[in-house]
Amino acid sequence: AAMGGFTSIACMPNTDPPIDNAALVSYIISRAKEAGRVNVYPIGCISKGQKGEELAQIGELKFAGAVAVSDDGRPVENALLMKHALQYANMFDITVISHCEELSLADGGSANEGVMATSLGLRGITPAAEEVMVARDVLLAENEGVPVHIAHISTKRSVEIIRNAKARGAKVTCETCPHYFTLTDAAIEGFNTNAKMNPPLRTEEDRLAIIKGLRDGTIDVIATDHAPHHVDEKNCEFALAANGIVGLETSLPLCITYLVDTGVLTLNELLKKMCVNPANILGLNKGSLSAGRPADIVVFDPKESFTVDVNSFQSKGKNSPYDGYVLNGKVKYTIVGGEIVVNQGVLL
């Protein structure tokens, strides 16, 4: 994280065991303070064991230090349970982050439904698998008058649903990830498992719609969806390979190269989506350089280019589709709580 310029990260609860109780939240906070170089904020489960059957103790998770609740990696399929989660989370002033995937529509697929999946003989995932759930959770939140944050949107229609909801005054925020505005499903050609993720990479039309959503403010946040995997989890049949890519060490330069250098966003607009908005959504006293705020700072050269080399990653996971890419935006210093943890691009 520090090598990528991140001073704070929020860890998802799709762990073993899932982060569904206060004791685990407290343990993660304590362990992170002992071992970590950056600030780690745990996200608790919406449902016990991420099983989607019974709500976790959302209030206890909040009081223990969780900054949000999510069943990320799995959708909350029961609409009534999600409605109750939104209500309880609002009572305790904690954000609900929704992983939007209708599993019956996803139908066990492994790539975006389209020409590429068909040509490779892969079972496709219809974009509607994401969009139906986005629409459901936006409407649930709107009807209750409570906030919801939609994770990692990837399709044109998801952007449109959220744009329209915001125009109606719904308290919805959302995020996307660098891979959804830099890559399309063409990246899986040759059964490239390093380009397999959930949601899957989509079409060029979807990619352009994501960029438009970033430009017009529909999309509030750019998140990494960092998901490192052992080589054995990727070096297998495409349908069996684990979903996800490492993102922490490439996200900032990808955003600079594909959004700032192309004129989609100004640097200040980018920093708002990567720093200010995430902090506000999670209720953190961070995200800006001002008196009284923590001295969490990244110093980077937006013009310095470098070639991505996965073998140089600090992450144990090397599963990145960007190996060999030439990007702009080299991290020079990362300062956490006033202490330098990365000096001239070297982790201390």
From TrEMBL:
GO biological process assignments: purine nucleobase catabolic process; pyrimidine nucleotide biosynthetic process
Domain Dihydroorotase catalytic residue range list: 1-157
One GO MF term attached to the UniProt entry: dihydroorotase activity
Keyword vocabulary terms for this entry: Hydrolase, Metal-binding, Pyrimidine biosynthesis, Zinc
Residue ranges of coiled coil: none
Entry-linked InterPro entries: Amidohydro_3 (IPR013108), DHOase (IPR004722), DHOase/Allantoinase_Hydrolase (IPR050138), DHOase_cat (IPR024403), Dihydroorotase_CS (IPR002195), Metal-dep_hydrolase_composite (IPR011059), Metal_Hydrolase (IPR032466)
Database matches in PROSITE patterns: DIHYDROOROTASE_2
Cofactors named for this entry: Zn(2+)
UniProt xrefs under Pfam families: Amidohydro_3 (PF07969), DHOase (PF12890)
Role: Catalyzes the reversible cyclization of carbamoyl aspartate to dihydroorotate.
NCBIfam families: pyrC_multi
Protein family membership: Belongs to the metallo-dependent hydrolases superfamily. DHOase family. Class I DHOase subfamily.
Protein name from the UniProt record: Dihydroorotase
